[in-house]
Write a structure and sequence with these properties.
Elements (H helix, E strand, L loop, with lengths): L5 H15 L11 H7 L4 H13 L4 E3 L3 E3 L5 H23 L17 H14 L4 H18 L9 H14 L2 H16 L2 H8 L7
Antiparallel strand pairs: 1-2
Helix pairs in contact: 1-3, 4-5, 4-6, 4-8, 5-6, 5-7, 7-8
């Protein structure tokens, strides 16, 4: 069905990008008036977008008190990274056990932003399953984790190096190597859950 309200779609994209950037810290209230002013939108379409983001798990609504970014806890972060890993392993298992083994398609990274690049890699891995549902789950998982990925500290994770390792494994066409990179990436995150949570409550560092 064609989009009959492109302005609403643009507003959704802009507000979602702002929420997922980590500018709004966990547990903090959304400034609806500020969003309306920034995007020249009236309260009703802004509220519609925020309700949609509640449905996606990116915000929560407090009755009579507005919209908030959910708090970040170690359990929540562990579950999010574990689910992200599971989606990727499921896709790799599907590709590895397919009746007809296909060469990996070209992997095109269209950004120098390491966080955006890793999301492109992860979505491409999910696509190896040939399942739209798996890709959709990865897109949603990327949305959930984006704010955390954009937090400090860069010293914990060599993001650019990780992108290079994934692209090298992909270029080799080696599913086993890709699986090893997936496990290593998530092992590093799961080993630093407490630091990730602590930094989630600090302003984004912009990398």
């Amino acid at each position: 069905m064609p989009n009959r309200n492109p302005r609403q779609a643009d507003l959704y994209t802009a507000i979602k990008a702002e929420i997922c950037s980590g500018q709004l810290l966990p547990g903090h209230r959304v400034d609806m008036a500020g969003l309306g002013n920034r995007y020249s939108a009236s309260p009703s379409p802004v509220r519609n977008v925020l309700n949609r983001l509640v449905g996606e798990g990116l915000l929560e609504v407090h009755p009579n008190d507005g919209f908030y970014r959910p708090v970040v806890t170690e359990q929540v972060v562990r579950e999010q990274y574990s689910w992200n890993r599971s989606i990727m392993l499921l896709a790799l298992d599907s590709a590895d056990t397919a009746p007809v083994q296909k060469p990996l398609p070209p992997l095109t990274i269209t950004t120098e932003d390491a966080v955006a690049a890793i999301e492109q890699v992860f979505t491409a891995v999910a696509g190896l399953s040939d399942s739209r549902k798996t890709v959709d789950e990865m897109v949603a998982s990327n949305d959930q984790l984006r704010a955390l990925r954009r937090q400090k500290p860069a010293t914990l994770f060599d993001r650019s190096g990780e992108v290079s390792a994934f692209t090298a494994a992909w270029s080799s066409g080696d599913i086993t190597a890709l699986r090893q990179e997936v496990l290593a990436y998530h092992d590093r995150r799961l080993a630093h859950i407490s630091q990730i949570v602590a930094y989630a409550y600090q302003p984004t560092s912009g990398h």
